[in-house]
Amino acid sequence: MSKDTAIFAGGCFWCMVEPFDEQPGIESVISGYTGGHVANPTYEQVCSHTTGHTEAVEITFDPEVISYKDLVEIYWRQTDPTDASGQFQDRGDSYRPVIFVNSEEQRKVAEESKKQLAESGMFDEPIVTSIEDAKPFYPAEDYHQDFYKKNPLRAQIEELGGRQQFKDTKWAK
Prior knowledge:
CATH superfamily: Peptide methionine sulphoxide reductase MsrA
Number of helices: 7
Strand order of the largest sheet: 7-6-1-3-2-8
Low-confidence stretches: none
Shape: globular
CATH architecture: 2-Layer Sandwich
Mean pLDDT: 93
Radius of gyration: 15 Å
Largest sheet: 6 strands, mixed
Order of helices and strands: EHEHEHEEEHEEHHH
CATH class: Alpha Beta
Oligomer: single chain
Structural class: alpha+beta
Number of strands: 8
Strand content: 15-25%
CATH topology: Peptide Methionine Sulfoxide Reductase, Chain A
Number of domains: 1
Distance between the termini: 34 Å
């Protein structure tokens, strides 16, 4: 199996695992932190908004089974791409929406997808999700991994903070 990785930030990382985890060709989805300037940060440090890190997921996938373009499409449908200050009930820079790219090819795919979304007319406001070069990714503490499996009720409550309603109204089409 050939392998590649994709890193997406779209608010609380708990809510970003399941939509990717269920896809064929996905080897792993790790919750963690990236984009900041502190090595091996803790959850508490990231929550203090002093590290520059964003909560994100790192996806290891087989590009022969699922394409990076497919992953970007799944990513959009989990987020509000018009909200740069966080996602749903999760506010602040550690929840900002970012596609972290690790190659020129990923950058091209992400930029093209963002352009298509902007031109689609689905949103009245501009698409503000940023596309940035991947930086070191630090896996979060064990209790954050596979959260939707370990704490299904809590994960469901998080989804009800506006994300699920947004997905049902904006992305159901």
